[in-house]
Amino acid sequence: MTTRRPGLRERKKQATREALRVAALRLALEQGPENVRVDDIAEAAGVSPRTYNNYFSSREQAIVAAVTADRESRIAAAVTARPAGVSLSEAVIDAVVEQFTDPGDEARDALLMITTSPALRETYAETAGSLAGPLAEALVERTGGMDRLAAEVLAACVGTAAKLALQSWLSSVGASFGASAGGLESASAGGLVVPSGSLPDLMRAALSPLAPALDAAAPASPVLEQSEGDRE
What we know:
By secondary structure, the protein is mainly alpha-helical. Helix content is about 70%, strand content about 0%.
């Protein structure tokens, strides 16, 4: 995907946002999210509470942003990077599942914290809808001609499906942890799988009904048309 180099002002804003979410996550892991105040995050990041409010409306947003930062652009990049022979639906579903369910070792402790906090779970689920904008751009770029409105509608549907899958998984995880005396220790032992099923399974189940619409909206591939003509 084509990108422009950010200007100095934009880079400063990106650096401030990064400092706030890093500080928020560190304090939440050290003290527990319920014990962290917005003023504490702002002070740790070296900015005023007023500046903090220009970037995040709550402490939960800043904490969750440390885990979900740049996820939308990574999904979009993964969609456009899939080989040309891969169907659009497969490219989208694989990219979304991969980015939502493989957080990496660094984010694992943060996700365990999020799953045990109702406020953080709710905020985390809400982030799924934010992928619509970058994904719509990726759909247009990958297909080389998809109608813009169709791309935006499909991207919004993908975001909603991902959100519903996250909500289902997080509610199951929260219920499991709430019934467990082990808390985070039990969660760590169980990893990111709960009795109702793994997050990848739930995510694919939620996204699969969108596959026909994604493939139908993609313009026919010239390569595919040529190969079909050769067979005739």
